[in-house]
Amino acid sequence: MTRTSTPPKQATESGLRPDCLPFSDVFAQSIATIAPTVGPALTIALVHESAGAGTWLTYVIATAAMLLVAASINVFASRSASPGALSDVVAQGLGPRAGVVAAWALCLAYLFTAMAVACGFANFMDVLLATVMGPLPVFWELACVGIACVCACRDVRLSTGLMLALEIGSLTAIVALAVIVVLTRGTLVDPAQLELRDVTPGGVMFGLVLATLSFVGFESATTLGHEARDPLRTIPRAVTTSTLFSGVFYVIMSYVEVLGFSFLPRAMHASPAPLDELAAAAGVGILGAAISVGAAVSMFACTLACINAVSRIIYAMARQAIVHESYGRTHDRAATPHVAAMVASVVIALATTAVSLTGVTPLDGFATFGSLGTYGFLIVYVLVSVAAPRYLARRGELRAWNVLCSALAVAMMAMPFAATVGLPLPGSPFPVPAYPYDVLPYAFVLLLAAASAWSLVRPRGW
């Protein structure tokens, strides 16, 4: 499936519309999957629960780690392009079996992330309309996934343009609130944050799991390999630019949010809508309501972006006989992998509905599904970072800088794993997390192992 150019005949045979997406649309795919609005609206508060005054530092570390991973991804993205995205590049560097593992890890990661943001959508819709309609998480989750599925099955240019427009509107409102919060407080100086008071290494490392969740999907531009214009230049630019933009935004917003909540009675992580509370405290409650609308819209856009990405990954897996070939069919008119999109959407809808019907709140669903999705991305990022120098070495292009970037990326991806598994020792800097987070890494690894083993041993035609 890998290619180093974009000849019309080959792209047409793929069933996807070739060379139709400019940089803005490719960038929109990565930005919408990252969903930077979700960070200040929800994720930063969850990171703060463990990292405390070190939340901004956690995001600095996460940004550096993601930029190192982006460098490894761009080793491949600047030389080849395909809808299989990172699984294809892992196969190039580490062999086809590693490629199968990466494909399933990426597929599961996008599925769990879509489940997380669908729960997030339900959370904000309940915040906005609970007094009118009451809490209806299942309804909102199904509505979010259903509408996103319809959009994903239509023209990819429509869905990427819609995602970018929605995200820009949300980010504008959040930046306006940040300025108002700082002006209201009258200072940018927060001694507790600058001195990292009561911050522990374990807290920062555990916070890295959800901080990493804030970035996951930055590589999703690579799934548009057949559809992007000049993909060998456009995709690497989108990967790096979206990561850097989001990282700077998160660092600033995490500092401002923690500063704002230092004057409020309720802890930030205890709030289902932190920005609403900051807006109300600053006397601009209407802006908080607008941001909640924007956050819900961003959650929807992220759901759509995840379905866009995972449908193309499943499509590529079908073309490579990792899953049944029927999942590789494309729509005759829209030129989208509609079968894969619909299958993914059904899985997402069933999972979120089942969890909500057991009484799990949308906020807890967001954190749990989000953590599971993060493990998939971390595994893929490690595999890509290991594969990059081997790939370059075979081409005679390996440099010391490439080895250093890869080694640092692997080390920084290992830190969240260490924090989530924990070290059950007295005085350990990485204590074992509370249930259910203590079992989530093992659950994901078992699921990944089962799916990968099935693909490697299944009979043809299954």
Structural summary, described in words:
This protein has 462 residues and is an all-alpha fold. It has one domain: Amino acid/polyamine transporter I (Up-down Bundle). It has 17 helices and no strands. It is globular and about 60 Å long. The N terminus is likely disordered.
| CATH class (first level) name | Mainly Alpha
Reported CATH architecture: Up-down Bundle
User: What is CATH's topology name?
Assistant: Amino acid/polyamine transporter I
Tally of distinct domains? 1
Number of helices: 17
From N to C, what is the helix and strand string?
Answer: HHHHHHHHHHHHHHHHH
Structural class: mainly alpha
Distance between the termini: 21 Å
What name goes with the CATH superfamily? Answer: Amino acid/polyamine transporter I
Strand content: under 5%
Biggest sheet record: none
Shape: globular
Helix content: over 70%
- Average pLDDT value? 85
Core attributes:
462 residues; disordered N terminus; single chain; mainly alpha
Task: Give the gist of this structure.
The chain is mainly α.
Q: Can you lay out the helices and strands and say which pair or pack?
A:
Elements: H1 8-14, H2 23-34, H3 38-51, H4 55-77, H5 86-94, H6 96-133, H7 137-153, H8 156-185, H9 191-194, H10 201-213, H11 231-261, H12 274-281, H13 285-319, H14 338-357, H15 362-395, H16 400-421, H17 440-457
